[in-house]
Amino acid sequence: MERYRIVFSGSGGQGVITASIILAEAAALHEGLNAVQSQNYGPEARGGATRADVIISDRAIRFPKVNQPNVLICLTQEAYNRYSGTVRPGGLLLTDSHFVKLERKVDARQLELGMYKSVLDAIGKPVVFNICMLGAMIGLTHIVSTESIIKVLETKIPSGFLEMNRRALEIGLQLADSLPAKSS
Amino acid sequence: MERYRIVFSGSGGQGVITASIILAEAAALHEGLNAVQSQNYGPEARGGATRADVIISDRAIRFPKVNQPNVLICLTQEAYNRYSGTVRPGGLLLTDSHFVKLERKVDARQLELGMYKSVLDAIGKPVVFNICMLGAMIGLTHIVSTESIIKVLETKIPSGFLEMNRRALEIGLQLADSLPAKSS
């Protein structure tokens, strides 16, 4: 398989770290892959910025930090401004249209989706925005299956909130499906 | 300051990853330090083992993985058997007496505490075992202040459960205090 180097970036409270751990656990516990998940808290973290890295591979992973992601998700303008230049040529840059205004061209597939707005319209709870984002991301990349994500959600989410999380995941998958097929 | 290289090891469901993220955020968001937190999911993870690494420093942290921890916490026998040999000479190895039987000498301060039993006796909820362990660990090392841990808990724990978490943290601190002072 391709080695996936994924960076989730945004602000504290958007659930970026939780989403990245769910993805790593789905890959490692339910798809027989290796995964490393990490976050580096420096001075930006004290300003509210959050970044979480995930590497997924069928081989051993020695260095856990991602320098050039092939999948980059930016959920704030600050994250987009800081990281969009790091996306690997030919990779994927996903942003949320509520939070990010695209300002530059990158040598990657650049997609913006109305994830936050869709979650608010359909569910009314911004707390599952991160799960919708995860749905969109796996709908676009197929790094892991939806079933593997749901298996992890079942171990982490109190049963009363599971249905809301499933719906948010489904909204993300549908948003990814609504895009025109990749031309390449 | 000393650079702290900390490994939390145990099994899925013991809250090891959550505890490690709380520690990293306490250091980074409330004490002006840098922190990196990571977990590497390999084949052992599919067998239920969990390991989380944290590095805390006042300088930049380039390599996020810990090879030789100066603080090692083992919450299962398997984790103890696997990792106790890696503790840095002069470091600290902390185990829980309910889960781990000490079987070897290490060139480090080796402490076992009845954290699990104390939490069950006083609170009755094993879910806060990880917070008690975190309390014991910061009571022994003073890596971050209790107040910084509580500030992070306040952002992560629903208000109805905050008091239970504070009590678990306090139990851990008291267990650490009950030990004879370090001889060196």
Walk me through this protein's architecture.
The structure is a homodimer of 184-residue chains. Chain A has 184 residues and is of the alpha/beta class. Chain A has helices spanning 16-30, 43-46, 77-83, 115-122, 129-141, 146-156, 159-177, and strands at residues 4-11, 34-41, 49-57, 71-74, 92-96, 109-113. Chain A has a single domain (4-177), classed as Pyruvate-ferredoxin Oxidoreductase, domain 3, CATH 3.40.920. In chain A, α3 (77-83) links the parallel β4 and β5 (92-96). In chain A, strands 2-3-1-4-5-6 form a 6-stranded mixed sheet. Chain A is globular. The mean pLDDT of chain A is 94. The first copy, chain A, is built from 7 helices and 6 strands. In chain A, α1 (16-30) crosses α6 (146-156), α5 (129-141) crosses α7 and α6 packs antiparallel against α7 (159-177).
* CATH top level assignment of chain A: Alpha Beta
Give the overall shape of chain A, derived from the CA principal axes.
Answer: globular
Spatial order of strands in the largest sheet of chain A: 2-3-1-4-5-6
Poorly predicted parts of chain A: none
The quaternary state of the protein chains shown equals: homodimer
So how many helices of chain A? 7
One letter per element, helices H and strands E, the order of chain A comes to EHEHEEHEEHHHH
Give the amount of beta strand of chain A, in percent: 15-25%
